[in-house]
Specification:
single chain; alpha+beta; Outer Surface Protein A, domain 3; NADH Oxidase; 2 domains; 7-stranded antiparallel beta sheet; 3-stranded antiparallel beta sheet; 12 helices; 32% helix; elongated
Length: 375
Amino acid sequence: MSAPAYGSGTAVKTPHNLLLRRSPNLVFYWEGNQLIIDNYERRVAVKAGPIALELLRFFSKPRCTRDIIQALPGEPAETLNHAAQELLAHRLIEPIDDRNRAQERALRSWSCWGIEARYFHSATKDVPYVPAERAVDFERSQRISSTPRRGFKRYARGVKVPLRPPQLQPSAGFLDVLSSRRTQRDFDGRPITLQQLSTLLKLTWGISGWVNDPVAGRLALKTSPSGGACHPIEAYVAVHNVSGLKQGLYHYSAVEHCLHAIRFFPAKRRASRYCAGQWWTEKAAALFFMTAVFERSMWRYQHSRALRVIYMEAGHLCQTFCLTATALGLAPFCTAALADSLIERDLGIDGIRESVLYAAAAGHATTEKFKTQRA
């Protein structure tokens, strides 16, 4: 086993009768020709070779270091003991003690979500931060040879639909809107107006102002917060029943406040497939998809915790959407149960640089049920 790829460990002598086991929180992957072993719960990763792998196999059951010669009988005991000490120092093997037992019991509660959820949760914790007073100088030094990612997508070709400025009813008081918001799954199929759609888009995903940043330059402001004002979220609309608009998929341009047609087709027939069989989405007037262009946040935040922030941002925007729909007298719905690859294929995005995260819908609710829910 060679020097750690990240993290650090200091080899220490351990008693030969100490009972050790392989950590239950290991992920293996390749970087070029080098195998990396990552203890995601401890946030330590090391480069590893054949001896390390054999020892990890050996410690799949509780063993004492005095028995280590059984792992590789052909290797010198001194080599094996040194390798075991490094594994212990880098937390790839660990003592069987009360702390580790308790931690393993706690992690079992995550088993239904699988290793991918445990890995994401643990590996994105406790990242190093730069003190606020040094943040600007640090970002300048990191970005001196790079340029910010373009803030918003644009479509040079295709049908362009200009939208009017947003318009809300003067009587829509904030407390009334907040207390009236309810998730709706029973739409009556009536159309919404192009003005209502315009207001939903502008007040949720549109630009409300601009500010100059000493590092990134001119940055957009919206009604919902965005980490570093990177605005990785893009909005698309599957138009089902909007007065004056053909059915199909559209991209919303936050800069121009307009729609660009991606393709025309009977979009509402596909809504339940997009949303994992949730048939009621077909009766909504429009279905809205939020995607993330990850490079926009990567440029400013080069650590994996930024992915958490992108998901939070989608949540901020969705709540703004639901409140705006409520203020318009419409009923909102949101879901993360998505046929990701189907949506991404129809939107013409690759699912890697840009990927779908969240969906919301709006329409007119079946009156009696909506009254009961709002009550």
